[in-house]
């Protein structure tokens, strides 16, 4: 059976199918086989969007059978009609065999062949750290505007790490309870960088000075725990923390002889344990 096949890209699946119908000169959508290659993805603040891609097949043979059902073809003799009806009942006729072949040979969505054909090549460029910093700044500036707040965004590179600071009295609203909103914005910014660059630089984000205040508070808290540990011994298990917060505890513990720190548990409930190290264990 001959196939006429095209691929069409549009903002939505329906628009892509309509464009394919127009290009193939088909008025009835049922005369097409449609495989959705890529679902449309809405961008965030106008960035990172993705159009729908569909693969459309036109089946001339099926269209002819539809015309026969509507009675568009010339009349056939009663004898031939009886033969065809008997063949369709038995399932051994030409038409019955054709339907079985179509059903058995039609590729199923999600099969190995379809997956290999649908694999999209990675055409993202390798942006430099400076270019990624500019991209992060533009995204964060757009986010501040979307919040309707007054604030400024600055970025710099420190040992291949992008340091992004969002400053302004009103930007405190972008921090959230215990930095929950800031953490979400950090992940969104990283996602934007990954969307436009193959190799993504590390990102450190601070909003309204929260990260610095958090580091200072955690440092004081860790010093108090270590003092308690040195006087009472044993171990102290802290509450689950983010990787950045755990690093602060580890850094403070490393400054004290005879004190060890290590992480346990699985994210997002991974936590730090502080313990006293005997002199014999250190050796």
Descriptive notes:
- It is a single chain.
- This protein is an alpha+beta fold.
- It is built from 10 helices and 9 strands.
- The strands form 3 sheets. Strands 1-3-2 form a 3-stranded antiparallel beta sheet, with helices on one face.
- A hairpin with a 2-residue loop joins strand 4 and strand 5.
- Helix 6 packs across helix 7 and helix 8 packs across helix 9.
- The longest helix has 23 residues.
- The chain is elongated and about 85 Å long.
- About 14% of the residues have low confidence.
How is the main sheet built?
Answer: 3 strands, antiparallel
Order of helices and strands: EHEEHHHHHEEHEHEHEEH
* SSE-based structural type: alpha+beta
Strand order of the largest sheet: 1-3-2
State the shape.
elongated
Query: In percent, how much strand structure appears in the residues?
Result: 15-25%
Average pLDDT: 78
Helix content: 40-55%
Query: Which residues form runs of ≥5 with pLDDT under 50?
Result: 62-81, 91-111
In total, how many beta strands? 9
Distance between the termini: 79 Å
- Number of distinct helices: 10
**Gyration radius over CA:** 32 Å
């Amino acid at each position: 059976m001959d196939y006429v096949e095209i691929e069409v890209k549009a903002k939505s699946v329906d628009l892509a199918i309509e464009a394919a119908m127009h290009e193939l000169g088909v008025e009835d959508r049922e005369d097409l086989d449609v495989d959705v290659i890529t679902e449309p993805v809405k961008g965030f603040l106008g960035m990172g969007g993705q159009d729908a891609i569909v693969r459309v097949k036109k089946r001339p043979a099926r269209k002819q059978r539809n015309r026969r059902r509507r009675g568009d073809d010339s009349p056939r003799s009663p004898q031939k009609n009886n033969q065809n009806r008997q063949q369709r009942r038995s399932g051994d006729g030409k038409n019955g065999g054709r339907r079985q072949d179509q059903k058995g040979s039609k590729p199923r969505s999600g099969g190995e062949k379809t997956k290999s054909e649908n694999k999209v090549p990675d055409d993202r460029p390798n942006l430099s750290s400076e270019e990624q910093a500019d991209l992060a700044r533009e995204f964060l500036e757009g986010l501040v505007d979307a919040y309707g707040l007054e604030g400024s965004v600055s970025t710099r590179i420190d040992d291949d790490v992008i340091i992004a600071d969002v400053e302004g009295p009103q930007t405190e609203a972008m921090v959230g309870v215990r930095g929950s909103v800031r953490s979400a914005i950090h992940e969104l910014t990283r996602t934007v960088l990954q969307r436009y660059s193959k190799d993504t630089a590390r990102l450190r984000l601070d909003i309204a000075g929260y990260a610095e205040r958090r580091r200072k508070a955690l440092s004081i808290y860790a010093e108090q725990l270590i003092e308690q540990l040195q006087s009472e011994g044993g171990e102290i298990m802290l509450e689950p923390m983010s990787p950045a917060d755990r690093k602060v505890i580890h850094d403070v513990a490393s400054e004290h002889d005879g004190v060890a720190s290590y992480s346990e548990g699985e994210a997002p409930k991974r936590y730090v344990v502080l313990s006293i190290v005997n002199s014999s264990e250190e050796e």
